[in-house]
Amino acid sequence: MLGRNVIRCLVAGLTLVVAGALPAGASEETSPEPIVDGGPVAIEDAPWTVAVLLAGNGSAAKRQVCGGTLVQRQWVLTAANCVAGRRPSELRVVVNATTLGAVEPSAELRLSRVVVHPDYNPVQGTADVAMLKLRSPQSTVTTIALNDDAAVPASGEDLAVFGWGASTDGKQPSTLRGAIVQNLETAGGLCGPYSGTEYNSLANVCAGYADGAAATCAGDNGGPLVATQRGGARILVGVTGATDRCGDPGYPGVYQRVSTYEGWVFATIGTPDLSVGQAVVVEGDTDTRTVRVPVWLSHATSRTVRVRWQVTPFTAQANDITGDLTGELEIAPGETQAYIPVTVVGDTIPEQTEQVAVRVTSLQNAKRLKRSGRLRINDDDVVGSGGAVRLGVGSVTSGGGLGVRLPVTLSRPVDHKVTVTLVVVAKGQTIETVNVSFAAGDVDRPVPIVLPTTGGYRVRATVVPPGVEAPVDQGTILVK
Questions:
Q1: Boundaries of domain holding 359
Q2: Which residues of the chain have pLDDT under 50?
Q3: Under a CB-based contact definition with an 8 Å cutoff, are residues 32 and 172 in contact?
Q4: What is the reported pLDDT for 24?
Q5: The predicted structure's pLDDT at residue 333
Q6: How many domains are contained in the chain?
Q7: What is the pLDDT of residue 42?
Q8: Within 10 Å of residue 276's Cβ, how many Cβ atoms?
Q9: What angle do CA 125, 130, 136 make, to 5 degrees?
Q10: How far apart (Å, rounded) are the C-alpha atoms in residues 301 and 116?
Q11: Contact 315, 321 (CB under 8 A)
């Protein structure tokens, strides 16, 4: 990647490190030569950027051939020119790495699929996009939303590019680099001196500088071209194409326009499934409390998923719930989970455990997997006791990763701190022990828990202080 001798600007908080900012005596592999309009960056500034390598021995930096972008936890978008004709076993992907020279072989991810766009033409460079499927979803990665607006980026807009490509001296360093470029498409959809067969404004983005001061080069192919939206969110607008110009004056870089291929990307990944989960609440004696019933996607998408929902009594009475019984929610691009609020009315009448049905009535940009969820209302009213303080441990199902938020509740507020101990158990083995503290007046404490693998878990209370009754039922966690 080529760049100016000084930094023009910073985009979306991206910190670009210029020459002279590295410690004296740093090696050439970890301190690349100065680049135009940018320099080395930390992977935290572009966490969706990945390196595509050839399988083999030796340093990952020596085997890196292209870049790519994580658009879903198991899928990478890259350039077809990087991977066409190659089998999954011939390639590796590295995520969450700034310096490829420091990557251990065990960190190189294997692939299960290589999908090249069916219209890819290696001679004309058209439809130069491909998808790489990792063997398993990655729980510690960050993905980026895909642009679906053909009017983005605007003419003259600043964009950011990232990669491990060659610099001005022809060397290909192992440290990730970033640069700022501009959308140079002119009126009439033209890009520099390129002909209509070399540049198509409907399928390409024209970016760089007229003097060639900032550009991508060999090794950057397949990497991200990113725009910053109002509010600071970043979206993927382009995929770096093949080039032998490397910053030649008058020849901007030609990128594949993501909005053109966004539909193909998600047809390749598949439409996400949507499920409605379970929640539990202790009813309480007075007032109301709002419980969140989880809704999740099997994987993220670049489209907003819109859900209409309805709450109805199942075995509960109509007056056990209040507030909005119908509504709409959105799951934003890149997200996998949202919640449906259900408001429960407390009373002092002894009752059986009751259930409320939570249904999806219409859905856009996802498929239904489990249409109805349940909210279980545990009664805390005991005849002749005036109402006990009871601990409630809920149940949760997750299809969007190994992390969950387990609902833990008290039936009513108390005037002192309450601490309980929970254990998470699978196949008779204790997986994790969690201490949960309620401050005076608190009744609802969602507890974040990260599980080691998918599967089913049970949660039980092992230490409950005097004055608090342990739950009758164990909580459950299901991670798909």
A1: 273-479
A2: 2-37, 382-386
A3: no
A4: 29
A5: 76
A6: 2
A7: 94
A8: 24
A9: 165
A10: 20
A11: no
